[in-house]
Design brief:
It is built from 7 helices and 6 strands. The protein is of the alpha+beta class.
Length: 194
Amino acid sequence: MVKKQYNFTKADIKFRKHIEENGGERLTDEEFHNFIKKQKKWLRGYVEVVKKWATENPCEAEQLIRLVNSWKEREKNQKLYDELAKIKKLSIAEIEKLLTPILEKCGYKNLRFSKPEFGRGIKVEFTVQETQTERHEYDSRMGLQNLIKQSLLTTNWKLMSEGISYHLGFLQGRLIGIENEDDLKELVKFRYNL
């Protein structure tokens, strides 16, 4: 009796190994060949049903494509989404509560916020007073800037790029609060070099 030869692909062999490891028994080449044949027949039928459904329901099919693409994008950028999940979305009152004790401990008092500007994010100007009169202007500005940046690192707020200005013991700067998920992604990418 001549033994029949089967041309299994690498994917077939990998799948066979998976089946055998999880099923507990070894399959003969013929059993596996018949199993694969049935699976391919079922899959072709399934593909035809899906094609028919997609043709009859183009809007739903487009939504499904977008959903699957968002899953793929999320899987591809898992580190970004992990960091994004850690971001605390704080209100301006919570930011004031967070910053006030930190700033006071380091010699800055009377944190005040101005009226917010609404647009892509919420921009708000702030002022504080320097209480350590022996500290030089540059040290005062850079100290406050670093303190605020570090304090806001895990939040949806950041110090705006113009930094901090100093005038006769008053320090002034602007913060931006971010709500939009796409903007938050950009913030996380920038902070963590992703």
